[in-house]
Specification:
The chain has 9 helices and 11 strands. By secondary structure, the protein is α/β, with parallel strands linked by helices. Helices cover about 40% and strands about 25% of the residues. It folds into 2 domains: about 120 residues, NAD(P)-binding Rossmann-like Domain (Rossmann fold, 3-Layer(aba) Sandwich), CATH 3.40.50; about 100 residues, Regulator of K+ conductance, C-terminal domain (Alpha-Beta Plaits). The strands form 2 sheets. It has a 6-stranded parallel sheet, with helices on both faces. A 5-stranded antiparallel sheet has the order 7-8-11-9-10. Bound molecules: adenosine-5'-diphosphate (ADP). One of its GO terms (biological process) is potassium ion transport.
């Protein structure tokens, strides 16, 4: 059976989640207070309804507890976001993902039992900043305060050298997870594999180790 999703709040964030889930063939219920927003998604989502999700009876009548995953993408109205999340938790929804506006909001959402809290503006800001500071950093995913996954572009300095030649694991303590070349992706590459200029290297490791490696080799 197809997974059933509900997206509450159809702003830029919720709207793009709704659209992408629908494009992936999922069943999506799109919910917003604003009728214009709901009309916009009427042909995109499986169902689209006007509703205020801070009203417990409204959530009940939508059968919200039967959905596999509910995404709360209410933007500026932090109070509504918290209240909606609380009622979803109380209704026993299995997966609740909520967009946080700031760190305090995030703290409260975690306390009341949201399963996943996302902070898209902050996370995208961090990723873009890394990309601006180093032109070799194409993408950046923070795993924790200390560890990250980074996509680096191989330049002339590593062209024709193998992972053994560069001695990356022993010297820097980082692991190359994959190498992308054109459309091909080589997952867990062999240490004898040569790098080429233009390859995209996906590295996992401690931030300071990755930085050292990047400064030396890229
Ligand atoms: P973004 O920053 O992602 O663009 P917005 O703040 O523009 O987010 O959008 C949030 C959406 O959430 C708006 O369309 C708003 O109508 C909707 N919304 C706000 N409160 C509620 C609520 N209580 N119930 C349902 N939808 C709501």
């Amino acid at each position: 059976m197809k997974k059933q999703f509900a997206v509450i709040g159809l702003g830029r964030f919720g709207g793009s989640i709704c659209q992408s889930l629908s494009e992936q063939g999922m069943e999506v219920l799109a919910i917003d207070l604003n009728e214009d927003k709901v009309n916009e998604f009427a042909n995109i989502a499986t169902h689209a309804v006007v509703a205020d999700t801070t009203e417990e009876n409204t959530l009940k009548s939508l059968g919200i507890r039967n959905f596999d995953h509910v995404i709360v993408a209410i933007g500026d109205n932090i109070q509504s976001s918290i209240l909606t999340t609380l009622m979803l938790v109380e209704a026993g929804v299995k997966h609740i993902t909520v967009k946080a506006q700031n760190d305090y909001h995030e703290k409260v959402l975690n306390k009341i039992g949201a399963h996943k809290v996302v902070h898209p503006e902050r996370d995208m800001g961090i990723r873009i900043a890394h990309n601006i500071v180093s032109k070799n950093v194409l993408d950046y995913l923070e795993l924790s305060d200390e560890y990250s996954i980074v996509e680096l572009m191989a330049g002339q300095s590593v062209h024709g050298k193998s992972l053994i030649d560069l001695n990356i694991r022993a010297k820097y303590g980082c692991n190359i997870m994959a190498i992308k070349r054109d459309e091909e992706i080589n997952v867990s590459p062999d240490a004898t594999q040569d790098l080429r200029k233009g390859d995209i290297i996906i590295v996992i490791g401690a931030d300071e180790d990755i930085n050292r490696m990047e400064e030396d080799l890229f």
